[in-house]
Known about the structure:
Distance between the termini: 47 Å
Number of strands: 5
Structural class: alpha+beta
Radius of gyration: 24 Å
Strand order of the largest sheet: 1-3-2
Number of domains: 3
Amino acid sequence: MMMPLRSCPLAVGLSKPEFAARLGVSAETYRTWDSGRHQTPASTLEKAEQSSQAAAGNQLLALSRLAGLLGLLVRTLRLATRNGRLEAFYGNRTLFGHPIPRATLAVGSAFMPSVNRPNIATIIAWGPLVLAEAARIALQIDHGISSAHARAIVHRDLKPANLRLALDGRVSLRPR
Length: 176
């Protein structure tokens, strides 16, 4: 399905005259197509859609906009940026003296599998675990806690809600 010409500059993050220049047409010609006074040629529509799709994955977005696209809370992305789990780029724009982090949709999509992991409390709420599965999880928890204690790290809030189960079956401890 073809994207309407009007939404293409927004997807790329360009103004209408800049987008017209990218298409190789004058701003006045683009204005007549955008207003509906003249029919937009199909080849131009295809070129506009390809241009907007190519730039959509590499465009830097504010974390608030990225959170809306991914269906996450903004604070989840901000925390992931601070912890280094989400690669963010900082421009020269600031808000109250703090640089504004921005990330691409591709980076946010790569971050999603680490967010949507269920915790052990949720898995227990789904129903009882098979004995072998419960033993495997308990051994991984024991190994993780003993390796943390070997490094003089004490968690102090060990509970099922702070234990995440990865897609490959590994248990990870939520940092405190």
